[in-house]
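Justification of resources, computational component.

The compute hours requested in this renewal are based largely on the per-chain cost of generating structure records like the one below. Each record pairs the submitted sequence with a full structure-token output. That output is archived, and it is also reused by downstream analysis tasks.
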Amino acid sequence: MLIRTSIAATLTAMILLWTAGFVGFNVHIKGLINSDRSRTDAIVVLTGGPDRINAGLDLLADKKADYLFISGVDTRVSAEQLVAMWRAEAKRPPCCIILGHEAQNTIENAAEAKDWIRMNKIHSVRLLTSDYHMPRAHLAFAALMPDMDIRPYPVTSSDVRNNKTRYLYFAFREYNKTLLTWLRLHMNGDISL
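The structure output for this chain reads:
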């Protein structure tokens, strides 16, 4: 009887802690803003929707960095196609767009970007991804590049912005993935699977 009560109390406490964490995660996401307008050496965009890529191209066009590295791009997609979706009138892509075709997930995005960053002697990056994805992406990038100046630039996706159910689905999924990434990092000292 005492063991059951103890197990029930522990489970209840864990559920309450998890719920409070999810609420805090959402408050954190809603509080993310893009107030840093300083230049960085490069902009790193994680694919996952046109809003992210377009925001990265906007920053490059505004000369906020010398390079735009887009990680996780399908091999059938070219820089010219991405630029055409950004601005139909663009005749050619602006200078220095680099496409990474290897990454399939967030940890691979960080590894792919790390290789390119080291090869090009980059010291500061503006990390651009969806607002709900930013905590996990920043955690992965900071774990793989602890000495890198990483400046988060969260984007609120237009397909999620006006759909509360869709937003909660993505936020719920990302919260759990972020917790797992954090646990892996703090238990193993490593974020890889």
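The two ends are 39 Å apart (CA to CA). The CA atoms of residues 124 and 153 lie 13 Å apart.
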